[in-house]
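Researcher: Next entry in the queue.
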Amino acid sequence: MMYQPTLVNPGTWIRSFGLMCGVALLSQCSAPVSVRMEKPVAPAGAPAVSPNTVALLSSLRGDYARIRLGDDSAIPAYNYRVARLIEHLEQTGEDPWSKPITLSGTQRLKGIAPAGTSPVKDQLFPADTLAFHGKYAEHRAQVSGIGAPLVLVTSFVGIGREQVRSNLPLRNLTAIVRFEGKTTTLELIDPYQVETISLAGKSRPLAADYGAATMLGLSKARIDKLGLARLLRPSRYNDTANLNFLQPYDPKRIPVLMVHGLQDTPASFAPMYYKLLQDPKIRKNYQFWVFSYPSGYPYPYSASLLRRELDEVKRDYPGHRNMVLIGHSMGSLVSRLMVTDVGDKLWIRAFGKSPSETKLTGNSSEVLRKSLVFSDRKEVDRVLFYSGPHRGSILASNWIGATASRLVQVPSLVADVRNAAISAASADIAGLTMNSAPNSIGTLSPRNPFVQEINKHPIVGRIPYHTIVGDRGKGDTPDSSDGVVAYWSSHLDGAASEKIVPSGHSSHQDPQGIEEARRILHLHLTD
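Model: Structure for this entry, 527 residues:
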């Protein structure tokens, strides 16, 4: 039967598996980003002042006056003191957000915050107090300007489906202070919505740290550690299958949805995400989403989970703009099923009859229908496939794949579906039945029935798609490989473009691979 279809991405797993101590090594991997709180160094022209609201605002008023007179050398001191004001208010619990604070005489401090934020209940961290370290920290996406970049923290736990879209657990903000007569206004601004402000009589770029929120989240929640756990025991983490927003939803921006591969999490897209955020045109026109899922599941089932999430987004955010999909390795295969229209052809190939004529009931029937009967998603306009094993990988057929596969616990849901499918399949299509319950490693093979069958169904003609292929440096394309997936498997006839980058399987983290994503996103704006 067909539901053994897990095109594996032996990708990251195989690279670490080689010494046969892969599980122990991977489970102890260091954080891709760690954070340490530190005391920022005051810039020149910003001598220390008493840590109280009146004194801080008095110094800020002086900086503001210098800036109004055209002395932009006062901007670093102004930014520094705005950050210290935020720190002071957090420490003392003073609340200008609920109602203005009377400071002295008739002077008062009023707070303004973007809709959907609650600085009274949540925490505000000045970005200059957060020192990030680790392999992803170098990609921090910062923009110079006026104001103090902040991170607003609702929660460090951001993997539950109930809080990842409408209520972002962490948000990037920028604080500015305005002086107008007897009222001082402390304003928090969403840098995704406002990049230029009028302050002190002049239009100025707003300072921003677009990577701070997600870096803080990576360092605290450690979602990267879910990768191995969700591969080995996918059913334990079923509730972590979700589509997350990485920034506040904007109906005017084009969603870019990134889909990770096997034994991975959305954290693997961090280098690409931070680099793309450095491009003003991309920041202005796109918003970034990620799909996270237990990669031990057969990938057609993971694709059904993504369709479920897309249906929820369509329900909750009607009218959102059509999206660009970026898939890496097994994420490419999940993405491909979003732009392939098979209807019930795979079902008929597996069972010899239509879904309505097949005697299947209960949960198994529902899982099979959602996994094997599908059409292309109309909200997808373009796809980028990074290191996609579209025709399988030889590694899945050898001892490495077989050994790794035995470590993955097959979910009872999948085993039940297999048993029900075998009982319903007719004898004349025995070639598509499963000898054992599938997982996401053991069934990737160029000879796998699903791999062969799905490649008979082309990507729908309206969708431009692009392939990015890794080459470890031998320069022997078309006989090349990224070490996991060979060129003959990643290559797709009909692609709008194909880019071969000098990398291993992590082509989505290679500088040339990232630049190709930037190029295509710019192209997408003109098509």
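Model: The radius of gyration is 26 Å.
Researcher: Noted, moving on.
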